[in-house]
């Protein structure tokens, strides 16, 4: 293999590039990024960066002394993958021929249709989004966050600490019920109300008010929430449009095996755009977690370099964290499928506890609030159980 | 400076013992029976590596998955970018001692600010 192109220059793309070099690949390595920035860390965008506690230099993912001997093609997006020519087509007209391709194009924030061009309406996914939102929050006033997921909750917590008047609107009856289940979703999202942030659940958003600048959020039950600034945190969709017609099978992102392989030889997919096969559940699953973007590229790269002839290792159960209102929330495993959740240590009232999710008596997930040591122990136990099964 | 940490018999393999000095230092007893001492605070954000995931000669920060090599202090995985200091470990009469490194520590931005008297 003489040229490998990594399409996507965020954590998953960088991890793939690092893994290629670590595994001894010494050919030409090209990294393509739609954003003009070198790889940067996204979790702080809704927290420390948004609060102004850290700057852009601290977001950089590369170390100062790091040199991957790569060609960086930044500020242009991939528009197509030509399987006969084995080439990546770029928006600026260039073409990169490659023997191996790592698809790492991530996911883009969903927006509310019909709100384009309305000032004061934000999403938060990229550094540029975060810069704009930070400037918007600096003006103060009333913030309405649409969506009570983790990004929305972190933005609400940060904005509250900055002194804004904050309301969170969530269409589902309980926020975070998807990732955490209804009981724990309710306990974690109660952090909002503990801190004087309004949380409206079970009501959808009909639209936004305002001519050139947003001035209100209109709810489906007829209520109107006055707003100076609005953040739309309603999830993300995988960025795979550019692969239409390429021969790479798409289904909620790039459909790939447990080792990242796609339906095209010499092409693997990693990160938020990859819908990996999960041998534990026998189904495909697209996981938008930082740790997945860090850890999974190594098995995909091993597959790529070996021409597909490797047994995929067993991945660790999915892990993510969230910091809100000074509380550290950690979760590992799969809440879906659990039939029982028990608080094993601490108490939910103190916001310091550890809860274990079980299915037929066996632990399948663990949630910790301000319990990093216990959480690590349980996470290890969960991993050994997953590896043994 | 030699600092007594704990008795070797009180630190099982796979466990860590934190010394509450400023900045804190932790002694790790690996599954293979080796002892290492490093700065306890992750260089990315305030978290105790003694609470982390010990595997082989590597410890993973309990919060954000940064990994440090216990032998060299080198950071093996982001988001941390700077290494932790390593310290010499001496065992005498069943007691573990740590000889502190003379180097300056790499502390996360929030801790450095606090030690400098600024806002935490």
Description:
The complex is a heterodimer of chains A (389) and B (120). Chain A has helices spanning 11-22, 48-51, 127-137, 150-161, 177-180, 182-194, 290-305, 372-388; strands at residues 3-7, 28-33, 71-74, 78-82, 87-90, 95-97, 100-103, 107-109, 121-122, 142-146, 165-170, 198-201, 205-209, 216-219, 224-226, 229-232, 236-238, 254-256, 267-269, 274-278, 283-285, 319-324, 327-333, 340-347, 352-359, 362-369. Chain A is α/β, with parallel strands linked by helices and 389 residues long. In chain A, the strands form seven sheets. In chain A, strands 3-2-1-7-19 form a five-stranded parallel beta sheet, covered by helices on one side. A five-stranded parallel beta sheet of chain A has the order 9-16-10-11-12, covered by helices on one side. In chain A, β20 (274-278) and β21 form a beta hairpin. In chain A, α1 packs parallel to α7. In chain B, a hairpin with a 2-residue loop joins β9 (86-92) and β10 (95-99). Chains A and B meet through α7 and α8 of A and loops of B. Chain B: Its EC number is 1.14.12.19. Chain B: InterPro entries: Rieske_2Fe-2S (IPR017941), Rieske_2Fe-2S_sf (IPR036922). Chain B: This is Bifunctional 3-phenylpropionate/cinnamic acid dioxygenase ferredoxin subunit.
